[in-house]
Design brief:
With about 90 residues, this protein is mostly helical. The protein is about 80% helix and about 0% strand. The protein is built from four helices and no strands. α2 packs parallel to α4.
Length: about 90
């Protein structure tokens, strides 16, 4: 993770690096690298010199919320299609 931060020209606090390492272990290294890039962009937007733990946690929470919302929409769409197919079968009988 430290090497990737150097490649991104991203100064990372120790706490943020620890959390990113934990995220990489629990999810995937690719996801953690994407969080480094996003946290670096947030850091630059806020005119900060170092990525803090709060930036990483905020991005991670936002991504989890977005994923949960997409899963709810997917389930609703699946159930809608399933109900329509079920109703067609009943109407045919």
């Amino acid at each position: 993770m430290c090497y990737r931060c150097e490649e991104e020209d991203c100064e990372m606090s120790d706490d943020a690096l620890t959390v990113l390492t934990r995220i990489a272990l629990e999810t995937s290294l690719r996801y953690a690298i994407q969080l480094i890039t996003t946290a670096s962009l947030v850091c630059r937007k806020r005119k900060s010199t170092e990525v803090w733990l709060e930036y990483v946690v905020a991005i991670w929470n936002y991504n989890n919320f977005k994923l949960s919302f997409c899963m709810i929409c997917y389930r609703f769409a699946f159930l809608s299609v399933y109900c329509m197919l079920f109703l067609r079968v009943i109407l045919v009988l």
